[in-house]
């Protein structure tokens, strides 16, 4: 009888969780549509007299100041903002900004649109060709192993085609986006891109992580990944609902809808035009598609998946690393609990509570030697705080904890400098008003620090650091 009631409670929890996520997704989607419609109507209603605009522009004389400013901007390394899971780049969801408009804080910012659910590997390849240009090449061996096309989206001209060791880039990654950048840097060091034999880790000037998924998250197990292997899905879980929805979405292949938002699985060719009804059935039953080959994001975000990635990822001696780890928990009488009720997004409050109480099944071997449940209790509703500070497992990388930017010593390359920030996982994205003054403090510091790290050989200082 007790087992029966436990099952009922779990099903109710699953229904509520699925409903909350769908409602939030619909809210984001409808907000983007409403914003686009409003902007369209405004542009149509207040359409300017183009003859007058052209006449005014012709009367304006270009100044040497403007020309010199443009030249200076062109010489600055671009800052590339890389979104996380379920994220989107510039051009998706209309005028909505994943980074809540932070890209407007600097003149040289790129916001690529990568697969929102594709694997870390696939997204890293996409990011390279987004910058350099050409057709995305996922690699022959990987493509055959995972059952998808070798080639993907075509970029007629890269967004930064001059990218090389003499023209390096700053990367800022949120959530899984931080791990994408690390894998890309390792690929550059390993010269993993066919036709580009001169790549190196020095193409990356700095990596800044915002709630970065370096060491996996226990959230994946709560949502349906088996803790035994970190790859397969439970029969009934939130991720199964997500899997079915994504397959149907891609199979329907509605052009205007996919142009608005795309999960990134086009290279799996799941469209009804290519697969038909039988292909849909195969994907739904798990015998075809990204979920059968495990070539999607969630296996990479388990602790086991992150350990496998980290086992061949390096922290390079000439690259600057900085990390903001978020936390929305505190200890009350020795018990880890959510630190606030109103300060946590409604979608994440229950998640924070669940993650703080997570216990690895005792009958299963721990994911790594020395694993302790208490180390993974602090979290932000999506990732565990221990996972966000710096790469720790299976080998801990050099790191230095920072309590306040103004008291930090000179930054040195090859070391992960990290801070703990009180906030949930989506505090610094999508909705700028939620973060308030913290939003500007975080992004202003990030952008200012990037602009001070133009030359690799000189020791850099954190923004607002007191002069010695």
UniProtKB/TrEMBL annotation:
Mind listing the UniProt keywords for this protein, alphabetically? Hydrolase, Lipid metabolism, Membrane, Secreted, Signal, Transmembrane, Transmembrane helix
Q: Is Transmembrane helix one of the keywords? A: yes
User: Transmembrane residues, as ranges?
Assistant: 7-29
GO biological process terms, alphabetically, are:
lipid metabolic process
InterPro entries linked to this entry: AB_hydrolase_fold, Lip-like_C
What does the UniProt entry say about where the protein is found? Secreted
Q: Which GO terms describe its molecular function?
A: hydrolase activity
GO annotation, cellular component aspect: extracellular region
Domain Lipase-like C-terminal, chain residue ranges per copy:
78-190
PANTHER family reported in the protein's UniProt record: ALPHA/BETA-HYDROLASES SUPERFAMILY PROTEIN (PTHR34043), ALPHA_BETA-HYDROLASES SUPERFAMILY PROTEIN (PTHR34043:SF3)
Q: What name does this protein carry?
A: Lipase-like C-terminal domain-containing protein
Species name for this entry? Linum tenue
The root-end lineage is: Eukaryota, Viridiplantae, Streptophyta, Embryophyta, Tracheophyta
